[in-house]
Design a protein that fits this description.
Blueprint: H1 5-17, E1 28-33, E2 36-42, H2 52-55, E3 59-64, E4 67-72, H3 78-88, E5 97-102, H4 106-114, E6 119-124, H5 131-136, E7 140-144, E8 150-156, E9 163-167
Parallel strand pairs: 5-6, 6-7
Antiparallel strand pairs: 1-2, 1-5, 3-4, 7-8, 8-9
């Protein structure tokens, strides 16, 4: 049976994640249009800097929504690396779609919005996700199973103070 484009793109993101150099999070991203793949990105140190897998992670603790989380500050996230690669190489990504192995963090969500990306699909949750940020900017956000089938989508609740996940049946 032929796989869907979303399944194919998520498979590409999973393969790209294998290039990640931070052992705390092997994350891959692919930015696409209806014409195909534009760019990919993975989590890792900036060009010319040492990688976590070589020198260890630079972990800092901070609070998000009243929870304490740990974050490696040595790396650039996969989503941001894909956006920056597009900018560096003159690849237009306005009105594209981002597919990622993990839900984008709040900082990446802001970058996705400002880059003009219109929607996000992901497989795994992230402890400090930015789904509320994406929905606040009216982007579509879908979660997929590890097999690449759509599980559902996120939407803002009636008073736009919280989000809820709607399962696709």
């Amino acid at each position: 049976m032929r796989i869907t484009r979303s399944e194919m793109y998520l498979d590409i993101a999973k393969k790209v994640a294998e290039r990640s150099t931070c052992p705390r999070g092997k994350v891959g991203a692919v930015i696409v249009t209806d014409r195909g793949v534009l760019v990919t990105g993975y989590s890792g140190a900036p060009h010319g800097f040492p990688h976590c897998e070589d020198v260890g992670c630079a972990v800092e603790k901070f609070a998000i929504d009243g929870r304490e989380v740990e974050h490696c500050t040595r790396t650039i996230h996969a989503e941001m690396n894909a956006i920056l690669f597009a900018a560096k190489n003159g690849v237009a990504i306005k009105d594209s779609w981002l597919l990622c192995t993990h839900a984008p963090c709040q900082a990446c969500a802001k970058g996705i919005i400002n880059a003009g990306i219109r929607g996000v699909s992901y497989v795994q949750e992230y402890h400090a996700h930015g789904i509320m940020v994406l929905l606040g900017a009216e982007l579509d956000v879908y979660r997929y199973s590890s097999r690449g089938t759509r599980e559902g989508y996120w939407k803002l609740n009636y008073d736009q103070t919280d989000i809820e996940f709607v399962v696709v049946t």
